[in-house]
Each structure stands twice: as structure tokens, then as C-alpha cells.
Amino acid sequence: MKKRLPILSLMVALLLAAGCQSAPKADLPALDKVHAAVKTELGEDYFPDRALTAEELETLMGVKAADVESFVAEMPNISMRIDTFIAVRAKAGKGDAVKKALEAYRTFLVEESMQYPMNLAKVNAATVVAHGDDVYFLMLGKMDETSEDVESDDAKAFAEGEVARVKAVVDGFYK
After folding, report:
1. Which residue ranges make up each domain of the chain?
2. Helix (H, G, I), strand (E, B) or coil at 25
3. How far apart (Å, rounded) are the C-alpha atoms in residues 83 and 168?
4. What is the pLDDT of residues 24-56, one digit of tens each?
5. pTM for this one?
6. What does the alpha-carbon distance between residue 77 and residue 74 come to, in Å, rounded to a whole number?
7. With bands split at pLDDT 50, 70 and 90, how would you rate the model's confidence at 147?
8. How far apart are CA 73 and CA 116, in angstroms?
9. What is the pLDDT of residue 18?
């Protein structure tokens, strides 16, 4: 028993020391759960129906595979629709690089890409949202069928409202 007492004391001391370390960060949400909540929020107005590969994420959006821990990304199969959902959990410390790549992709869409007129408001309303190393690209929402002028302030406000609706769902997971 005398031989076991020092070993038990050492084990208790190690366990106490481990308990005194700083608490781990709060659990991050599973990206697929955030994605599911966005799909639920939009219902039949969620149009992306094709998952993107890591290669497409890098080639099309400029997000380096080496910076990515995990991701969920979808866009439509047909070019007439542009709705896109991208959620990237970057490797530790790589969130800024992923955010920069997705912001550059958004800038490309707004300033250089050719778009169907009906999609202009939604492209301009697209946003990049970052929560630490979790970064989202949101270009989603219902189409405005009330505004005949797709470049009007009303069409822009409608598209911004739809993206804000999705952003609120995403932000809700990080409170």
C-alpha cells in the first residue's frame, strides 16, 4: 500500500493540474447543421442543388484546399440561377485567407462576371460573413417578382433583405 500511495498521489495531482488549464473554446456548430437551418429558413426558395468539390472551391472561388479543415458548398446546376451557399471551416489561423478569397470572388461576380439581368440585385447583395475561422459566402434568397426593374432600389433592397435573413440564421449559431 505504501508503494501505491505515491503513484495515486501523482495521478491525483496530474488530474487536478489538467482541470486547472483554461477551458476549451465553446463548441463550433457543425457546418452541415448551419446549412440545414439555412435550407429550412428558405424552404422552396433554396435553389442550390449541386455540391461543390474542394477542387471547384479552389478553382472557382480561390479558396486554397490547404487552408480548409471542412466545408459545405452548393450552387445550382443551371447557369440561369446563381444562388450559392458556402461554409468553410478554415484551419486554425487561416480564416482571414479564406475570407479574402471569398471576398475576391464576390468582387469578381459584381464587377467582372456576366450575369442575367434578373440576377443582378442578388449578386450585388451577396455577402461574406466570418466568425473566427468559420467563413460563409451567402448569395441566396427568394427572387423578387414584384419589381419590374431588376436594377431598381426596390429590387436591391429585396435582395439585401433575403441575404440578411440567411445571415441571421448563420449568426444565430455563433451567439
Report:
1. 28-172
2. coil
3. 17
4. 345 899 999 999 999 999 999 999 999 999 999
5. 0.83
6. 9
7. low
8. 22
9. 40
